[in-house]
Predict the structure.
Amino acid sequence: MSLKQVFEDNPNRRYIMFGGKGGLGKTTFSAATAYWLAKHGKKVLVFSVDPQASLSDIFQKDIFGQGPVKIMDNLWAQEIDADRHIKNYQNEIRKKILDMYGFDAVPDEIEQYIQAASAEPAMEESAIFDAVVDIVVGGEYDYYIYDLVPLGHALYYLSMAKVYDEWINKITKLREEMREYEEMVSRLKREKMTEEDEILTELQYIRGRINASSQILTDKEKTAFFFVVIPEEMILIDTRKAAELFAKFDVPISGYVVNRVVPRELLQQNIPAYLKNRIEMQDKYLTEIGTYLGNQVVANVPELERDVTGLDMIRKLSEIMYGQ
Ligand SMILES: Nc1ncnc2c1ncn2[C@@H]1O[C@H](COP(=O)(O)OP(=O)(O)OP(=O)(O)O)[C@@H](O)[C@H]1O
Ligand SMILES: [Mg+2]
């Protein structure tokens, strides 16, 4: 089964992810796939939460934190700036507090709480997660290609249950604290407390969004998750472990893409010993990949003569991966 065939046989799988260990080719394959789909008339968004701005690098265009940026006909790319999302969060919370209580300025204790909460790593994860949810529930594109950060991290996003719990805890805590504050204020103002619980309403709204997005990302019908591997021992060991974890989280794997395969034909030429050794080493692991993954391998991608950056190289790679 070829990569192209997976796409043709499963036209409903519109959420595409490339996962794998660091530096194996996730961003490269995301870009090449986005290019190929766009060339075939699909409206595509390729996006990432990577603070390294690697989509900016590969498309040779500054897109970080700028929303969807048009790359060419049918193709948009977006890089989420988590820091800016956190700042927006803080402002939203401030505004809500000001609106709710009619203050002119946010009281010191609350400001301190907002600052402290934003310094937590979980806050960053939540901000990123929230931005991803915004994108995937949007629905304006034919294809969404989520260029994942390296494995361990990616698992975090995919284990929605965990993220969900953290969200609920954080917001419930915030809600309780605000409740206390609210009581204090209404005592001071000698007012009756309002029955309507806006925070709770918001909590339910968020829960709905998280459910919607986790359903999309773990839905076999809608999602294709490809694992990127290279023919090396450690990578294969780690990949096997990761695949088990993904299975546990019910993330359906659509196939494996083997990258950086040194063409075997080179053996017929007069090549340096190190290259010969490399080919032989790869042979061993390619055999292993064949044994363990067999027909789950949907593409073998050769080692190219240079890094993949710019639309010309991306096109070249997409032709290798998907055919002309
Ligand atoms: N088949 C290939 N031939 C030559 N260079 C390649 C090939 N595949 C990937 N590269 C290069 O390897 C580097 C790493 O690739 P890429 O950025 O796609 O990896 P990644 O999995 O997204 O990394 P990260 O985990 O850091 O996000 C890039 O410079 C890319 O151009
Ligand atoms: Mg990357």
Q: What stands out?
A: Residues 26-27, 50, 54, 147 surround magnesium ion (ligand 2) (CB under 6 Å). The first strand starts at residue 15 and ends at 19. Residues 160-189 form the longest helix (30 residues).
